[in-house]
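thought: user wants a sequence for this fold. calling inverse folding tool.
action: design(structure=
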């Protein structure tokens, strides 16, 4: 009687499977580590763009003359003379305006808060900074009295940084390198 052999079964050995799995695990570990840094870089980039756009928005409001506000429940209109952005805390930004008093002078003692924005997973390299712009010409005043550099830093990895630069001439730029604003 004849027996038929259909060929030998071919399969991977246990050692070969373990080696392939180890290589796959190493590749996954490297990619997760790389993606973590990429996510932090993206958060800093988004926060930097967001801060620059907030400052550009108040600059635009001061230049186009958006300067009349209804003050609460009364029908009294307030005339803005300054718009500003400030950060007293490391991750919170407030926008505000100052308005003219009854004599037509800018009342520096009273600020009206527009909005408060909290930045997640990022902080600013220094606190206590401000930028204010006069109405209607947009003249820039900063907390340093000169060009202002605002560092935006990841709270998870402080080597990941962005920078918002505000010049006294009114240029507002953002960058993601360690270079100075000049």
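)
observation: tool returned 182 residues.
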């Amino acid at each position: 009687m004849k027996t038929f052999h259909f060929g030998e079964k071919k399969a991977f050995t246990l050692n070969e499977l373990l080696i392939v799995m180890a290589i796959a695990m190493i590749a996954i570990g490297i990619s997760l580590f790389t993606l973590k840094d990429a996510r932090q870089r993206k958060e800093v980039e988004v926060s930097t763009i967001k801060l620059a756009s907030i400052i550009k928005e108040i600059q635009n409001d001061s230049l186009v003359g958006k300067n009349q506000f209804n003050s609460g429940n009364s029908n009294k209109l307030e005339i803005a003379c300054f718009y500003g952005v400030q950060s007293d805390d490391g991750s919170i930004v407030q926008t505000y305006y100052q308005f003219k008093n009854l004599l037509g002078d800018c009342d520096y003692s009273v600020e009206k808060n527009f909005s408060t924005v909290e930045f997640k997973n990022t902080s600013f390299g220094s606190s206590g900074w401000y930028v204010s712009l006069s109405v209607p010409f947009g003249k820039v005043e900063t907390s340093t009295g000169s060009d202002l550099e605002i560092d935006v830093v990841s709270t998870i990895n402080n080597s990941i940084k962005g920078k918002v630069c505000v010049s006294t001439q009114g240029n507002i730029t953002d960058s993601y390198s360690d270079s100075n604003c000049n």
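thought: summarizing for user.
answer: Here is the designed sequence. The mean pLDDT is 80.
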